[in-house]
Specification:
Elements: E1 2-9, H1 19-34, E2 42-43, E3 47-50, H2 58-65, E4 71-80, H3 84-94, E5 101-108, H4 117-131, E6 136-137, E7 144-151, E8 155-159, E9 163-164, E10 176-180, H5 186-196, E11 200-207, H6 214-231, E12 234-240, H7 242-251, H8 257-276, E13 281-282, H9 295-302, E14 310-311, H10 319-329, H11 332-335, H12 357-366, H13 370-379, E15 382-386
Parallel strand pairs: 5-6, 5-7, 10-11, 10-13, 11-12, 13-14
Antiparallel strand pairs: 1-3, 1-4, 2-3, 4-8, 4-9, 7-8, 12-15
The structure holds adenosine-5'-triphosphate and magnesium ion (MG).
Magnesium ion (MG) binds at residues 182, 184, 341, 343.
Length: 387
């Protein structure tokens, strides 16, 4: 008998001929997390099993695994032989200190065994009742359940609790994406959400030094570091955006400032995405939240993107829901640190809420060397690797 951790993944996405592909990526991501504990994970009949771990590390291992997308749940289990007496011993040990009602649920993957699931459940339940007369059986609404999972090769797992993990798809299984990461509350959440759907992300940040400070940039790197718990090692590409913003400020109508800034951001983003082999762009836009996120604003910013889809996972969320997720994933406290983002540089008193494509283009035509400014920003990007 020994203690093991059983990891389960969501079956739904892993069926069919792509199954191996998902399993391999998930395994790689799990092993990355287990590296610090010098542990391996054995693949065993549709689940992973971690054994021979230091009991002092148990909480740390569980916390680390709960950030791996693609894992559905985990259990700390006793591993025994498939012998009913061994199983009964493990189950009884598990009930120490428990009160109230229980049931035993048996899953018997090995159909060659000389007992049925019902017989094994009865025997195990009987052993528990003999040992703890204060407990009673309730098959319908028990206070706790003892699960017995009998697998192939004379192995059984006995446990009573499942801990929910992060769910989603393994990072890397859905391809690569470029996420626009500002220092605000929203974009770390949109980044988290798309990593959860299996994208391997590169982050892009627009920085207008000295209008925005070194601290503002470092805050974004700090957010990327917090997110790396979920996203894995991540490149953060910082775009020097000052010249472009100054040019827009100098030549364009002031109420179009934000709209034009966002169009320039998207143009640069698409070029970087292509360079980095990213198949999509992600931002934290949320319909109606601010002037730059009205339907008309999103239309004119989106229209500069020629090839890639732009994902806006927060588009239908209320701010309070976004804040709740930010708090849950641990980015909120950093996001609310008061450093300016470049979107607030040269902020007009009344930004246009219904920009038109014609006026955007008229304004952009007035900006000297517009294309060169875009290319220069791309060429002078600085890359930080965060893990
Ligand atoms: P947040 O700052 O959390 O992203 P917000 O409500 O302030 O949210 P905006 O400033 O309008 O949103 O920006 C919308 C989206 O554009 C952001 O979610 C982010 O994806 C992107 N974005 C804005 N500023 C930057 C920046 N400086 N660098 C990279 N992306 C940015
Ligand atoms: Mg912002």
């Amino acid at each position: 008998m020994d203690n093991v951790i059983i990891l389960r993944y969501s079956e739904i996405h892993l069926k069919g001929k792509n199954r191996m592909f998902f399993e391999n990526i998930l395994r790689r991501n799990i092993l990355e997390k287990l590296n610090v504990f010098k542990l391996n994970a054995q693949f065993s009949y549709g689940r992973y099993v971690i054994s021979d771990y230091n009991p002092d590390d148990e909480d740390g291992i569980i916390a680390a695994l709960r950030t791996v997308f693609g894992l559905f749940s985990l259990s700390i289990a006793t591993r025994t032989t498939a012998d009913p007496d061994d199983i009964a011993n493990a189950a009884t040990a598990l009930c120490s200190g428990k009160t109230g009602t229980f049931r035993v649920t048996v899953n018997r993957a090995d159909k060659t065994l000389p007992y049925t699931s019902v017989e094994l459940a009865r025997k195990t339940g009987g052993a528990i009742l003999d040992r703890y007369p204060q407990l009673t059986v309730d098959l319908h609404e028990p206070n706790f359940t003892v699960y017995v999972d009998v697998r192939e090769k004379n192995t059984a797992y006995v446990y009573s609790q499942s801990i929910l993990c992060a769910g989603g798809m393994p990072v890397g299984s859905a391809g690569k994406g470029l996420t626009l990461l500002s220092g605000g509350i929203d974009s770390p959440v949109s980044t988290y959400m798309m990593a959860k759907r299996g994208l391997k992300l590169t982050a892009l940040h627009f920085w207008s030094y000295p209008y925005t400070s070194i601290e503002a940039r470092d805050k974004v790197l700090e957010l990327a570091k917090l997110l790396a718990v979920y996203t894995g090692k991540t490149e953060v590409i910082v775009i020097p955006f000052t010249k472009m913003q100054e040019a827009i400020h100098k030549y364009a109508e002031s109420n179009y400032m934000i709209t034009l800034v966002r169009r320039a951001m998207m143009r640069i983003a698409e070029k970087i995405a292509e360079k980095k082999g990213c198949g999509c762009i992600i931002n934290g836009e949320d319909l109606g939240q601010v002037a730059s996120q009205t339907l008309e604003s999103i239309t004119v910013t989106n229209s500069v993107i020629k090839k890639l889809p732009v994902f806006r996972p927060l588009i239908g969320y209320d701010k309070i829901d976004i804040i709740n997720i930010a708090q849950k994933i641990g980015t909120y406290e950093t996001s609310i640190k008061p450093f300016e983002d470049c979107c607030t540089v040269f902020l007009p008193d009344s930004p246009v809420t219904k920009p038109t494509l014609r006026r955007c283009e008229l304004n952009e035509n007035k900006i000297e060397n517009y294309d060169e400014l875009i290319n220069e920003a791309v060429a002078n990007a600085e890359t930080f690797t965060i893990s």
